[in-house]
Design brief:
- Chain B: One of its GO terms (molecular function) is mRNA 3'-UTR AU-rich region binding.
- Chain B: InterPro entries: ExoRNase_PH_dom2_sf, Exosome_comp_Rrp42_subfam, PNPase/RNase_PH_dom_sf, Ribosomal_Su5_D2-typ_SF.
- Chain B: This is Ribosomal RNA-processing protein 42.
- The complex is a heterotrimer of chains A (about 250), B (about 260) and C (about 300).
- Chain A has about 250 residues and is α+β, with helices and mostly antiparallel strands.
- Chain A contains 4 helices and 10 strands; from the N terminus they run E-E-E-E-H-E-H-E-E-H-E-E-E-H.
- Chain A has one domain: GHMP Kinase, N-terminal domain (Ribosomal Protein S5, domain 2, 2-Layer Sandwich), CATH 3.30.230.70.
- In chain A, about 30% of the residues lie in helices and about 30% in strands.
- A 5-stranded mixed beta sheet of chain A has the order 1-2-3-5-4.
- Chain A is globular and about 55 Å long.
- Chain B contains 5 helices and 11 strands, in the order αββββαβαββββαββα.
- The two termini of chain B are about 30 Å apart.
- By secondary structure, chain C is an alpha+beta fold.
- In chain C, a hairpin with a 3-residue loop joins strand 13 and strand 14.
- Classes of the chains: A alpha+beta (about 250), B alpha+beta (about 260), C alpha+beta (about 300).
- Chains A and B meet through strand 3 and strand 5 of A and strand 3 and strand 5 of B.
Chain lengths: ~250, ~260, ~300
């Protein structure tokens, strides 16, 4: 296989973006009003993710009752057809997926006002229909949108993004080709602040480059927050218009 | 769906009366409206997403792989995944055995259409994901498999068909695709209430059904498997064998309309 | 059923109040790593690490097997982390699906295996048919926090200490020489990753943490078990002496300012250097102990003196 040119001397990436450009980001909320209390459908590049929030509802078993706050449960279903090559085995119960679920729960536990919903269960179900790099960030975005649709109280948006480092150039919002070719950092940023709720680095990165990578990531995450905010506001406007025209 | 005794009794009586009255005013052979989207997953060869009016939703992806059909004789594989259910739960296992039976019978998917050369064939993987369902999802699944297969486009073969003499691997055109021309069977779920029979029972209708029928249809004919199905655990009892005939007739009469509707999206 | 450790209200209040006043229960400063004791066993690749009351044992072993079909030029490397009730009542036998245990296993896996600390291509004997399979078994003997840090040091010290039997290859045939016949050979270690875990505490309310800009969160290094039970967030940074960040994991928890996280990484680098030097020093000492008579036996020595 010939080596692909990840970043051309002219400053273009494989899919024609520049280093600081996001992928196409399209989202919609309230996509599954019958099946859930809050839902979102997110396309970030070729990542396609359905998120369903069910709850706050009565827990199914006694052991899940917490008298002080709601219990948050997240299950990630990465479908076998989500990658270009179909995977032979189901991803359920894989350690990587369990780790993702734990990281997502711990991220949102601190951001959702769980103390407002004691004795309840908030169940989040995610279906990854297609993945193309930076999946963890997209999951964060999908959950944020669905939680807002469900009307669950949160302190702020959490927006997720991955930044790769190609030699010395940080590349914003990596796709799967770029992700396999270089090391990348995943960030979960709280609202418009510079606070990171989630930070994952899985491959080697020079310590002295970390700061620039984080700075680019935070800027990208703020942009995603704005895109999500726009979508939510336009959705709300539509709803208000529908309600008043009736 | 939780219904009170009074609601159930009212539902049962109206469904069992002659002529029957369905709660949403449908005729016995009438389906609820459905929405279908196809080919929305670029990394699959074919895909479809079907949403019923009660919010039941099913996503199907078709992927293919080139295999040597003298070694691999199973050219169709169906995997069913129901959100919130384990892979070994009863509903998942019964649905996958039903769909495997339907698609792999000799009236199912015509595997000769998958043959590429004398040695190689496409093997197709049908992955079904049920996001939510409120009534027995068998017909929802079969409709979405049908529309996904109809929308499936596979790479076009450019190397020669005869590869037994000269050993070569199949070669494909860079971008030309051919439509997969198969006619998968459709599965219909019918509910029996009293002496009446209904197509596409809604969840409240299944609650009071005396029995359920699964009828498979392909190319204008009713084919096997045909079987009964317990739709609830309270009202189930035997039914007049004549109703089986009525049910088959009903499917034979309207099956083609459904297939046409699904094909001409 | 594993028993969750519960900490009493008065004890937790005491500990948090002490942290607010810049004190830790064991008298360490906030950025002080516990003293690491590394002890080697009689055999190669047998290491016990002690950090305060935390005790981790690691045993490296190897055998010849067949490589994976899709990777004919690579050997096998497996790290298994085994929790048992021996370490503390919160662990269950044979059940490794607990959230924390999955995270521990994954982080060690990423820090050591995925980062390529061990040269697995060097484990290849005959491409496609024979290779070494190196196995690191980590056992947690006593738990007082800092499992990830301790087991990472244990695995790396073990790998550096381990010697695999020497082999001779004749075509497809491989002869393995017993350790007492021929000097065994060390493994190829490409870099030494060291994990440093930071724990975060929020001294104020949640609104201040998310909306405020005081950044008053308390950060401590190498928490003990009690501190681990009470912390609001955790960050594990893995670095090596080449100033490379090997792995960072902050899986949720208390949101932290990006700059303070960078500060953590820098602090971690100083600790990494310290621990790497310590490992090298201990290894050298062990080597000397093993080869008591080396100085007398080498001919080089004789030449030098003459």
């Amino acid at each position: 296989m010939s080596r692909l040119e990840i970043y051309s001397p002219e400053g273009l990436r494989l899919d024609g973006r520049r280093w600081n450009e996001l992928r196409r980001f399209e989202s919609s909320i309230n996509t599954h009003p019958h099946a859930s209390d809050g839902s979102s459908y997110l396309e970030q590049g070729n990542n396609k993710i359905i998120t369903l929030v069910k709850g706050p509802k009565e827990p199914t078993s006694r052991s899940q009752v917490d008298t002080n706050k709601a219990l948050l449960r997240i299950s990630v279903n990465i479908t076998q057809f989500s990658k270009f090559e179909r995977s032979k085995s189901s991803h359920r119960n894989e350690r990587r997926v369990l780790e993702m679920q734990t990281a997502l729960v711990r991220t949102f536990e601190k951001n959702v006002m769980l103390n407002l919903y004691p004795r309840t269960l908030i169940d989040i179900e995610i279906h990854v229909l297609q993945q193309d790099g930076g999946i963890m960030g997209s999951l964060l975005n999908g959950i944020t949108l669905a939680l807002i649709d469900a009307g669950i109280a949160m302190y702020d948006y959490i927006s997720g993004i991955s930044v790769g480092l190609y030699d010395t150039t940080p590349l914003l919002d990596v796709n799967s080709l770029e992700e396999t070719a270089m090391s990348s950092v995943t960030l979960g940023v709280v609202g418009k602040s510079e606070k990171l709720s989630l930070l994952l680095v899985e491959d080697k990165i020079p310590l002295d480059r970390m700061e620039t990578v984080l700075a680019i990531g935070i800027a990208g995450a703020h942009r995603i927050r704005d895109l999500m905010d726009e979508e939510l506001r336009s959705h709300a406007e539509k709803r208000v218009a529908n309600a008043s025209s009736r | 769906m939780v219904l009170s005794v009074a609601e159930k009794s009212y539902l049962y009586d109206s469904l069992a009366s002659k002529p029957s009255i369905r709660p949403d005013g449908r005729l016995p052979h009438q389906f609820r409206p459905i929405e279908i989207f196809t080919n929305f997953l670029p990394s699959s060869d074919g895909s479809s997403r079907i949403i019923a009016s009660d919010g039941s939703e099913c996503i199907v992806s078709i992927k293919s792989k080139v295999v040597d059909h003298s070694i691999e004789n199973d050219l169709v594989q169906v995997d069913i995944n129901v959100a919130g259910e384990r892979d070994d739960s009863i509903i998942v296992e019964t649905l996958s055995s039903l769909m495997n039976k339907v698609l792999k019978s000799n009236k199912g998917i015509d595997t000769s259409k998958l043959q590429l050369t004398k040695k190689y064939s496409f093997k197709i993987f049908i992955d079904v994901l049920i996001i939510s369902s409120y009534s027995y999802p068998a017909s929802l699944i079969s409709f979405s498999i049908f529309s996904a297969l109809k929308a499936t486009k596979l790479p076009k073969l450019v190397s020669s068909f005869d590869d037994l003499e000269v050993e070569e691997l199949p070669m494909f055109h860079d971008y030309d695709l051919v439509t997969l021309d198969v006619n998968p069977p459709l599965v219909f779920v019918l509910a029996i209430v009293g002496d009446n029979i209904f197509i596409d029972p809604a969840s409240n209708e299944t609650e009071v059904a005396n029995n359920g029928l699964i009828v498979t249809w392909s190319n204008g004919k009713v084919i096997s498997p045909i079987k009964t199905l317990a739709l609830n655990d309270r009202y189930i009892n035997g039914f007049n064998p004549l109703l089986l005939k009525n049910g088959i007739k009903l499917v034979e009469q309207y099956g083609q309309n459904i297939a046409d509707a699904l094909e001409n999206l | 059923m594993a028993k969750e450790i519960e900490i009493s209200n008065s004890e937790s209040k005491f500990l948090l109040e002490a942290l607010r006043q810049n004190y830790r229960l064991d008298g360490r400063s906030f950025s002080q790593f516990r003293d690491v004791k590394i002890a080697f066993g009689d055999e190669y690749g047998d290491v016990t690490i002690e950090m305060g009351k935390t005790k981790v044992h690691c045993r490296i072993s190897c055998q010849i097997t067949q490589p994976y079909e899709d990777r004919p030029f690579e050997g096998l490397f497996l790290i298994s982390t085994e929790n048992s009730p021996m370490a503390g009542p919160q662990f269950e036998n044979g059940n490794n699906t607990n959230e924390d245990e999955v995270l521990i296993a994954r982080i060690i896996e990423k820090a050591v295996r995925r980062s390529g600390a061990l040269d697995i291509e060097g484990l290849c004997i005959v491409a496609g048919s024979k290779c070494w399979a190196v196995r690191a078994d980590v056992h947690f003997l006593n738990c007082d926090g800092g499992f990830i840090d301790a087991s990472c040091i244990a695995v790396m010290a073990g790998l550096l200490h381990f010697r695999k039997p020497d082999i001779t290859v004749h075509g497809e045939q491989v002869i393995m020489h017993p350790v007492d016949e021929r000097e065994p050979v060390p493994l190829g270690i490409l870099h030494v990753p060291i994990c440093v875990t930071f724990s975060f505490f929020n001294p104020m309310d949640t609104e201040e943490n998310i909306k405020g800009d005081t950044n008053a969160e308390i950060t401590i290094i190498d928490a003990t078990l009690k501190e681990e039970l009470l912390r609001d967030g955790v960050l594990t940074v893995t670095l090596n002496k080449n100033r490379e960040v090997v792995q960072v994991s902050k899986a949720g928890g208390l949101p932290m300012d990006a700059l303070s996280l960078m500060e953590c990484c820098r602090k971690a680098y100083a600790i990494t250097e310290e621990i790497t030097d310590k490992i090298t020093y201990v290894l050298k000492k062990d080597e000397k102990r093993r080869n008591k008579f080396a100085d007398l036996l080498t001919s080089e020595n004789a030449r030098e003196t003459s």
